[in-house]
């Protein structure tokens, strides 16, 4: 299984669930191995495949640097018509 497959839990072909806890853990791993850009590129690419995303456990986005990066990806997602819950 690919590493990025752990970020999004597909509910159906149009919606997905994003665990902010899992994203936080992947973010820490990416910081340590220098792949932060790839992490968020993969997230953006995954979100291109759905029309709605539900964020779970938003408290895990308390770090400003992580929240800023996630907000940027979600802003792009919303700009193309995606819905965030």
Describe the structure.
The chain is of the alpha/beta class. It has one domain. The protein is built from 3 helices and 4 strands; from the N terminus they run E-E-H-H-E-H-E. It has helices at residues 20-33, 36-47, 64-79; strands at 8-10, 15-19, 52-56, 83-84. A 4-stranded mixed beta sheet has the order 1-2-3-4. Helix 1 (20-33) packs antiparallel against helix 2 (36-47) and helix 2 (36-47) packs parallel to helix 3. The longest helix has 16 residues, at 64-79. The chain is globular and about 30 Å long. The protein starts with 7 loop residues before the first strand and ends with a strand. The relative contact order is 0.20. The model is unreliable at 1-5 (pLDDT under 50).
């Amino acid at each position: 299984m690919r590493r990025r497959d752990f970020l999004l839990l597909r509910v159906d072909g149009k919606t997905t669930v994003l665990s902010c806890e899992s994203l936080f853990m992947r973010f820490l791993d990416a910081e340590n191995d220098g792949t932060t850009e790839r992490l968020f590129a993969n997230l953006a690419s995954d979100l291109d495949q759905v029309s709605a995303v539900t964020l779970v456990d938003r408290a895990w986005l308390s770090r400003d640097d992580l929240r800023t990066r996630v907000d940027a990806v979600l802003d792009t997602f919303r700009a193309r018509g995606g819905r965030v819950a």
